Amino acid sequence: MKYKGSFIIEYKLRAITGLRVGGSREEFDIGGTDNPVIKLPVEIPEFYEDGSSIPKEAPYIPGSSIKGKIRSLLEWVYGNVERMYAKYGNAKIDEAGKPCDCGECEICKVFGTGDAKTLDELAKRGKELPGPPRAKFFDAYPTKDTLERLERVLGKGLFTEVKTENQINRITSKANPRKVERVPAGAEFEGRIVFDCYKENDHELIPIIFHGMKKLEDNFLGGYGSRGSGRIEFREITITWRPADFYKGLGQEHKVGPLKGVDEVLEKLGEIKKLCSSG
User: For the whole model, what pTM was predicted?
Assistant: First the structure.
């Protein structure tokens, strides 16, 4: 293996419906929210181009949430879930339901496999090892415009809504209300994915990322998806190729975008994959 370079994928993620990526309850408040969203524990100073900061308690989306959801959806699409079930069966259902651990498929190459036994077994059989995970998903933070807009509507220092839901007993009609915190529809977050290439044909794997992003648009992110939360779309996507020489100060980066959305990215996959031959 030899490091070839990296695709830098930058995007905006827009909440089409209320978004609920769960946080933890550190204290109990009477009348408070049952299900809080995850928020920044401290301010991030000088984050935006104008030098302004992201305030404490602003909501964000962990990279692990995006990566985990995309991988899970892709494993259904590519048949990995079926193969894992065939491998472990009902007797080991907990193992069967875990991420693919074959170490040979495209999903394992892109997202990684942490199963050391699998890697040892592949080496003993003389099989090619998958190498380091190609894709790295970073936390997505709210745009400055989103924070300003939410504060204008909700109040100073407020960035979320509280949605009250009721579970109704089908026989007695007794209500069991609960309060769910969500980021309001229309909020936008800026995110980044870095896709590293280590082998000659690794650029052929990058479509998997965009197929996963498209499938996520047709599913939901976070919790309460079956109740309407978590519908999202990716917008203003830019793909930049930075060859290994770029990091030595000897090469140039090459860029496609910004593109309107995932559909436009999929139309330009040929052009995107060719970026790595530019330098």
Answer: 0.88
